[in-house]
Design brief:
single chain; alpha+beta; Cytochrome p450; five-stranded mixed β-sheet; three-stranded antiparallel β-sheet; binds protoporphyrin IX containing FE
C-alpha cells in the first residue's frame, strides 16, 4: 500500500464503534462530556453505539451539523424520549411537524419570537429592576430572580394579564419543565403534573383571546393562527403559546452563566461596563457557545444520508452533539477558553447551542436572536443596573449535571 492511500482508506473506513455494551450508563455518568470522551476514545468526530437498547450514531462538527440541518432530513418524532418531549415541546407542536405543516407553523413562531423580539427585550428591561428590588438584601440563586423577571416580561410582551400569585406559579412551573426534562421517574412525573396545570391555564388563555377576537397581541396572533386555512385546535394553540413562554423563561439559565462569566472574567466585565456595544454582543454569543445548556438534538433520518464516508438508510437514529460541536477544535480555536473576542471574526450563527440549519426551513430555534438580545440586555443591566454582590460560593460547573449550573446555584444579593 502506498503512503498516500492511507488517509483515503481511513476516511472511507466509515464511523467507528464505541467499544463496550449499551452506552446509556456512560451518558448518565458523563453528561455533556459523553460525546467528547467517546470521540477521544475512538479517535474520530462520530461513533456508533447503543442507547436504551437502540442503535444510534452520535456526531459533532461541521459535516454532521450540515447533514443534520438539511430541511426535512431528520424527523423529531421518536427521536428523543417521550418524558422529555412532554416537558419540552409536546405532541402536536412545531417541533414534531415536518414539511409544509412545519413551515406554516414555523412562520408564525418566527414572526413572533424573532420579528417581535424588541418588545420582549423592552419588557425585560422594565421587569429586571423591579424583580431585583423585590429580592433585595437576601441571598438568592440568580436563576430564580431571572425566571420571575422573564415570566413577567414574556407575559407583558404576549399581552396576557395575570395576578402575582399566578405569575409566581408560572415562573416555577416553566423552570421545573426545563430542570426536570432530563429526569426519569417521580421527579419527571411531578414536573409533568405541573406542565398539565400550565397547559390548562394556557388553554383558558387561548379561549379568552378567541372569545375577545384579540388578533393584535402576540398571544392573540398565535391563538388565531391557521394551519392550511384551519384554526389550530385549542390544545395545540395552548401548547404553542407555552412554546413561546417556557423557553423564554429558560433564558434564566444563560443569565446565571452571564453572572458567572462576569465574575470569572473581570477584563470582559470592565469592557462591558464601559458600554462597549461590540464587546457586550460578543460576550452574549460566547456565553451561548461556551456554557453547557442543551446537550444534543436527536432525529430519525427521513431519507438516506452520508456522513464521514459512511452511508446510512432512512430510519437511522442520529444525535447531533451541540455541546461537542460548540467545543470542537475543528470549528473553534482553543474551544475551552472563554473568549468573546473570537466573535470579532466568527459568525454568531456558527454557534449551534440552539440548533442547526435554516431558522425557517429546519428546526433551528426561532428564539435564537431573542436569546442573544436578552443576554445583551442582561449584561448591560448587570454591569450598569441594580447593584449586586456575589457571596463566597462554589462556582464550579459540573458537566455531569444536566441541565448544568454553578455548583451552589450562582447566589447573588441585590441591593448590596
Ligand atoms: C433559553 C435558551 C434556548 C435554548 C438553549 C434553546 C434551544 C433550542 C434548540 C436546541 C432547538 C432545536 C431543537 C431541534 O433541532 O430539534 C430549539 C427549538 C425551538 N425553540 Fe429554542 N431555545 C432557547 C430559547 C428559545 C426561545 C426564547 C424561544 C421562543 C421565544 C424558543 C422556541 C423554540 C421553538 C418553538 C423550537 C422548535 C422549532 C422547530 O422545531 O422548528 N427557544 N430551541
Amino acid at each position: 500500500m502506498s503512503r498516500t492511500s492511507e488517509p483515503a482508506r481511513a476516511r472511507w473506513a466509515g464511523i467507528p464503534d464505541l467499544p463496550g455494551p449499551d452506552a446509556t450508563w456512560r451518558l448518565a455518568r458523563d453528561g455533556y462530556a459523553f460525546g467528547l470522551r467517546g470521540y477521544r476514545q475512538v479517535g474520530a468526530d462520530a461513533f456508533h453505539t447503543r442507547l436504551m437498547g437502540r442503535e444510534v450514531v452520535v456526531a459533532r462538527g461541521a459535516e454532521a451539523a450540515h447533514v443534520f440541518g438539511q430541511p426535512d432530513a431528520f424527523e423529531r418524532r421518536g427521536a428523543i424520549p417521550r418524558s422529555v418531549v412532554h416537558l419540552l415541546q409536546d405532541d402536536g407542536s412545531v417541533q414534531q411537524l415536518e414539511g409544509q405543516r412545519h413551515a406554516s407553523r414555523k412562520r408564525i413562531m418566527l414572526d413572533l419570537a424573532q420579528e417581535e423580539r424588541a418588545g420582549l427585550v423592552d419588557a425585560f428591561r422594565d421587569a429586571w429592576p423591579q424583580v431585583a428590588a423585590e429580592y433585595a438584601h437576601r441571598p438568592v440563586p440568580v436563576r430564580e430572580v431571572a425566571s420571575l423577571a422573564l415570566t413577567r416580561a414574556a407575559l407583558a410582551w404576549a399581552g396576557i394579564a395575570v395576578d402575582s400569585a399566578r405569575e409566581q406559579a408560572l415562573s416555577g412551573d416553566f423552570d421545573a419543565m426545563v430542570s426536570r426534562a432530563g429526569a426519569i421517574g417521580p421527579l419527571n412525573w411531578v414536573a409533568r403534573a405541573r406542565r398539565q396545570r400550565t397547559e390548562a391555564w394556557a388553554t383558558e388563555v387561548v379561549q379568552d383571546l378567541r372569545a375577545r377576537g384579540d388578533r393584535a397581541s402576540v398571544a392573540g396572533g398565535l391563538a388565531h393562527h391557521e394551519d392550511e386555512g384551519r384554526p389550530l385546535d385549542e390544545r395545540t394553540a395552548a401548547i404553542e403559546l407555552l412554546n413561546l413562554l417556557r423557553p423564554t423563561v429558560a433564558v434564566a439559565r444563560f443569565i446565571a452563566f452571564a453572572v458567572h462569566a462576569l465574575r470569572m472574567h473581570p477584563d470582559w466585565a470592565s469592557q462591558i461596563r464601559g458600554g462597549e456595544p461590540a464587546a457586550t454582543r460578543w460576550a452574549a454569543d460566547e456565553i451561548r457557545r461556551f456554557y453547557p445548556f442543551f446537550p444534543m438534538v436527536g432525529g430519525i433520518a427521513s431519507e438516506p444520508f452520508g456522513l464521514h464516508g459512511e452511508w446510512f438508510e432512512d430510519g437511522q437514529w442520529m444525535l447531533l452533539d451541540l455541546y461537542g460541536t460548540d467545543h470542537s477544535p475543528e470549528l473553534w480555536e482553543r474551544p475551552d477558553v472563554f473568549n468573546p473576542g473570537r466573535f470579532a471574526t466568527a459568525s454568531p450563527l456558527s454557534v449551534v447551542a440552539q440548533g442547526v440549519g435554516d431558522h425557517l426551513a429546519a428546526h433551528r430555534c426561532p428564539g435564537e436572536l431573542a436569546t442573544t438580545d436578552l443576554l445583551v440586555a442582561t449584561l448591560e443591566m448587570l454591569t450598569q443596573g441594580p447593584a449586586y454582590a456575589v457571596p463566597e460560593q462554589d462556582l464550579r460547573i459540573s458537566l455531569r449535571r444536566m441541565p448544568a449550573e454553578p455548583e451552589d446555584g450562582m447566589i447573588v444579593v441585590f441591593g448590596a
